[in-house]
Automatic annotation (TrEMBL), chains A, B:
Keyword Cell division: no
Catalysed reaction, written as an equation: a fatty acyl-[ACP] + phosphate = an acyl phosphate + holo-[ACP]
Quaternary structure note: Homodimer. Probably interacts with PlsY.
UniProt organism field: Acetobacter peroxydans
Keywords annotated in UniProt: Acyltransferase, Cytoplasm, Lipid biosynthesis, Lipid metabolism, Phospholipid biosynthesis, Phospholipid metabolism, Transferase
Enzyme Commission number: 2.3.1.274
Signal peptide interval: none
Record-linked Gene3D superfamilies: Isopropylmalate Dehydrogenase
Lineage, highest ranks first: Bacteria, Pseudomonadati, Pseudomonadota, Alphaproteobacteria, Acetobacterales
GO cellular component, one term: cytoplasm
Record-level GO BP terms: fatty acid biosynthetic process; phospholipid biosynthetic process
Protein name according to UniProt: Phosphate acyltransferase
Length: 368, 368
């Protein structure tokens, strides 16, 4: 049987739509990490109703082991799962994969969002094709939450779009603002456009135009202007907007520096007997700091700009991290993330098309 | 008097060329930080002979205070200096500024290199116009040394070129390799090209071509291929090559993360009486870690690809930091940094023009 449509036997939630479709087989620790993560998340979200997709023979014993997860899950069986190293083009052909069926559930309205710890490239490709881009958005982006000295910052794009134009950047600002509202609970998040300092702007026309557009948009009061690399962790703005290449490099460079600091600090604490005793005394504070910087707190990287909530958990996460990804998805579902974007876009449509007319006029041969 | 040429009375070193022309008036702490820094550097470099340019009335008392600096310096007087916030275009018109005269000294062969803690934008603009680009190099770049868990890494470009093509990137690789040889003393530095992971390469044609060219070049054995953000501090390669926009963001993001870690750590050490005692016990190790990460150790940001050595010290540096910038300049002068670039380019010219021919052929209308 080569089913390409969602089968009639696709489980529907007797009490209404599922909150989330969860790929039970995605990630290094799947399926156990997924089920254990759902058990943790179920404690925090009373409304959580999950369509859990994967190999029933492996999922059922785990649901027996984690009754809190079992209480919120309906299992939909499939044998197929997408390996972590499969190319997106190949993954698209696996129409019965657990990841694909989870996307189908969102596309057909059976679930409001999808969470997977599986293959990122496959996930983005499937989301674009199955769930599709939100009307008015040119391209989906990848967003995530990072720690700052003050609180949290939302950064996007983190790699979905290597090359961007000003329109993409403006759309990222709209989506980032909606994300910060839904997930960080901020009433009016501030927005910064990542640059390398105002004087050196010449080469980057797209940044100049994007900034102009944002200053004229309904987001003007929340738009802080340009920010630089060090502003990300300084918490200068709640949202930092950039293209996918720069965002990805910034994110990974930051992770690298944090790892270096940790490595050097470990050496310090092991450098002498006194330092080892000192470590024991500061350990409670260090544990709190570690928790603050814990990547599991920030485990939900999100594909925004799609007709549904799509959250990617880190492939190597543990149950706590997977639960954090479910938290992010539930915040987005509960706080009407996409409605907030639609609302903004309806007020920005005129502005974006006015600029388009201006661009076309520039290209036209001038009348003497 | 409106002198536009170097005056005849321009001091010449009786024993030959000056090693460095130093802008005595550049930087927040000038001129004292400059003279004190030269005093420190004079201890470390026996061959150091400095043409110190600035306000004689302010420099002479300082040289009396720092006799070790006085022993290596010849003062050339000028009243004019370039403020830290002056625009490059305006700075170019100040033909008698201490920074300009220092550049003139290099252009006329009186000195081999220039060091200034002054206005960066002005310095790059002046260097391009007065000292000029090295034959075979399309555009100068800004390079600096950063700490890693293993040792040091050379990164470029850090902001001189916001938009780059593959040729610029290949040239950066050549210059970065020569810099790592001269300043880090590595016999065969390895080179990485900053990217966001091999799968997502499609959008960045310039990176793909640059990588191909490096694989065919005399640098092939040292070329590691693509690296990602986290590889910078992991010390995966000795040189990391990227465009000026990405490099600037990566550098500042890294600095920001390090600052955040320091802030959080300070809070930990002040969080309780026990933590304060713990801090005292680990302090010796922390001091060594601080020294390792000390920006003063890495205080020489360098403009590479010019007909002379051009080192920019941080504007807010202290004497130790200024001395570090002088160290970098002296390493480059002593170890024939530019000769090493010229040598490489002479072996790569054929490769670069072969590719040029290929590009032109692609553009031409195909003959059926």
């Amino acid at each position: 049987m080569n089913k390409t449509e969602i089968p009639d036997s696709f489980p529907s939630d007797p009490s209404g739509a599922f909150s989330l479709a969860v790929d039970g087989m995605g990630g290094d620790g799947a399926p156990e990490v997924v089920v254990a993560g759902l058990a943790i998340a179920a404690e925090r979200h009373r409304d959580l109703r999950v369509l859990l997709i994967g190999d029933e023979a492996r999922l059922q014993p785990l649901l027996a082991k984690y009754p809190r997860a079992a209480a919120v899950c309906t299992v939909w069986h499939t044998d197929v799962s997408i390996p972590m190293d499969m190319k997106p083009t190949q993954a698209l052909r696996q129409r019965q994969s657990s990841m694909r069926l989870a996307m189908d559930a969102v596309a057909s309205g059976r679930a409001q969002g999808v969470v997977s710890a599986g293959n990122s490239g496959a996930m983005l490709a499937l989301a674009k094709i199955v769930i599709k881009t939100l009307p008015g958005i040119s391209r989906p982006a990848m967003a995530a939450i990072s720690p700052t000295v003050k609180g949290d910052v939302v950064m996007l794009d983190l790699g979905a779009n290597v090359v961007c134009d000003w329109r993409n950047l403006v759309e990222f600002a709209v989506m980032g603002e909606a994300f910060a509202k839904a997930v960080l609970g901020l009433p009016a998040p501030t927005i910064g456009l990542l640059n390398i300092g105002s004087e050196e702007l010449k080469g980057d026309e797209k940044l100049r135009v994007a900034a102009e557009m944002l200053r004229e948009s309904p987001l003007a009061a929340q738009f802080h202007g340009f920010v630089e690399g060090h502003d990300i962790t300084a918490g200068t703005t709640d949202v930092v907007v950039t293209d996918g290449f720069t965002g990805n490099v910034a994110l990974k460079t930051g992770e690298g520096v944090l790892k270096m600091a940790t490595t050097l600090l470990r050496r310090v604490f092991q450098s002498s007997v006194l330092a080892k005793i000192g470590y024991l005394l500061v350990r409670p504070g260090l544990e709190r700091m570690k928790e603050w910087l814990d990547p599991r707190r920030y485990n939900g990287a999100v594909f925004v700009g799609l007709n549904g909530v799509v959250v990617k958990s880190h492939g190597g996460t543990d149950a706590e991290g997977f639960a954090a990804a479910v938290d992010v998805a539930m915040d987005m579902v509960t706080h009407g993330f996409n409605d907030s974007i639609r609302e903004r876009l309806s007020h920005m449509g005129a502005l974006l098309s006015r600029q388009k007319v201006a661009e076309e006029r520039e290209v036209a041969v001038p009348v003497s």
